[in-house]
């Protein structure tokens, strides 16, 4: 059961439900990106998050019906519109990729192809000034390290799940795990 009590939306989608899973239908023309390579700024993707300070671990598991270029789902940390990290699955050139975008004024993006999977798990762990991103495919726990990045240590941040459809008409994603532990 996904309990969203105490969680808040940034860019709430038109269609979503919470029960056994958090089911979201992404709105079209949604994304998070800042300038690099493409020259535009987008801050329209969907995020369901809680504010946390200090060290924490966020874990989620999700399945998406990705169909269009850059359909994406996963997890996000966000201080403000210019400082954030998003990670998860991004659908690029007809394949699923494990993806991380780190933004500090400008976005940088890294991807690695993964086998198309029914489900993917993501873990973001913040310890001091470091964020470690791990993933797992299928029923695997998120144990494969994808990225180690700087993240300001003492700043309150939103931590939660995200999804977006930059180029397509929208798609459906189901998050059946959403855990945020602090300390």
TrEMBL record:
InterPro entries: ConA-like_dom_sf, DUF1349, UCP022704. It comes from the Bacteria. Pfam families: DUF1349 (PF07081). This is DUF1349 domain-containing protein. It comes from Kutzneria buriramensis. The lineage of its organism: Bacteria, Bacillati, Actinomycetota, Actinomycetes, Pseudonocardiales.
């Amino acid at each position: 059961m996904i309990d969203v009590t105490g969680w808040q939306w940034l860019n709430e989608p038109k269609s979503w439900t919470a029960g056994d899973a958090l089911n979201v239908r992404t709105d079209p023309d949604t994304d998070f990106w800042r300038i690099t390579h493409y020259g535009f700024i987008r801050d329209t993707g969907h995020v369901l998050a809680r504010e946390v300070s200090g060290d924490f671990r966020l874990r989620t598991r999700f399945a998406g019906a990705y169909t269009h270029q850059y359909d994406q789902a996963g997890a996000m940390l966000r201080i403000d519109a210019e400082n954030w990290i998003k990670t998860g699955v991004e659908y690029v050139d007809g394949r699923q990729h494990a993806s991380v975008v780190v933004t500090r004024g400008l976005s940088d993006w890294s991807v690695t192809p993964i086998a198309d999977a029914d489900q993917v798990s993501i873990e973001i762990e913040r310890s001091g000034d470091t964020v470690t991103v791990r993933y797992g495919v299928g029923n695997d726990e998120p144990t494969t390290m994808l990225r180690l990045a700087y993240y300001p240590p003492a700043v309150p941040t939103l931590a939660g799940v995200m999804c977006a459809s930059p180029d397509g008409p929208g798609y459906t994603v189901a998050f059946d795990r959403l855990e945020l532990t602090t300390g």
